[in-house]
Amino acid sequence: MRIVCINQDFELSHVECAKAPTPCKAVNDRSKCLRTHKCILDKFLQKDFSDEVAKDSTIIGVQFAGQIIGIDLLDDGLYFGLEGAQFNFPAQLSNIECLRDALQTLYFFKENIVRKAKMFSKQKNNSYNRIFHKHSETQSKAKHFKAKFIRPTFFTPRNKRVVQKKLDYID
Questions:
Q1: 8 Å CB contact between 106 and 86
Q2: DSSP per residue, 142-166
Q3: pLDDT digits over 117-149, tens only?
Q4: Over the stretch 65-105, which tens digit does the pLDDT of each residue have?
Q5: Are 164 and 28 in contact (CB under 8 A)?
Q6: What is the rounded average pLDDT for all residues in the chain?
Q7: In the chain, N or C: fewer CB atoms in 10 Å?
Q8: What angle do CA 137, 121, 148 make, to 5 degrees?
Q9: Residue 46 and residue 23: Cα distance in Å, rounded?
Q10: Cβ-contact 63, 106 below 8 angstroms
């Protein structure tokens, strides 16, 4: 699931869900989720924000195997993956404690997404500017301190992923 800020057409987060999560699938999904969030973070940091906004640049997501995960750029090319609170969904309604923990975790996630969306609404680009200057050089480049730290994301080539999965089944 993608969470997108509609007025800026910008992705704010990514959520992974699995029908039957296994430990191996959870690890693979977490890796995929971190790479996806790194791409979201890079696009976020390419916007022209103040240094203060750039300090609060952590992109947070949910892996419904029961964990909040996030990523931030701390230094030149140093991306740091964060493992947040773990939670479970209750199997029975009588497990109020488990339900309360899950709801608190999801509320934290929602608040983080709303805060990031508000950062975009404070940006000085209005909808007309986005339409008329979409591909022009008049858009301002990011000047905050993290802008120069961004590095490209590595994704394993498709054919090597298939080979790796086959090797995992052999083990």
A1: no
A2: P-STTGGG--PPP---HHHHHHHHH
A3: 887 766 655 454 555 445 444 456 788 888 888
A4: 778 889 999 988 889 998 887 888 777 878 888 888 888 98
A5: no
A6: 78
A7: C
A8: 45
A9: 35
A10: no
Q: 98: which strand partners?
A: none
> Which residue reads 């209750």 in tokens?
90
Residue-level pLDDT at 137: 44
Amino acid symbol at 10: F
Residue 48 and residue 147: Cα distance in Å, rounded? 9
Q: Report whether 109 contacts 68 (CB < 8 A).
A: yes
Contacts of 45 (CB under 8 A, 6+ apart): 54, 57, 73, 142, 144, 146, 147, 149, 150
| Closest of 40, 49, 73 to residue 150, by C-alpha | 73
CA distance 91 to 93: 7
Q: What is the pTM of this model?
A: 0.73
The length of the chain in residues reads 171
Question: What is the residue whose two structure tokens read 């992923």?
Answer: 161
Nearest alpha carbon to residue 146 among 75, 81, 80, 78: 75
| Separation between Cα atoms, residue 17 and residue 1, nearest integer Å | 8
Residue 59, both tokens: 């992109």
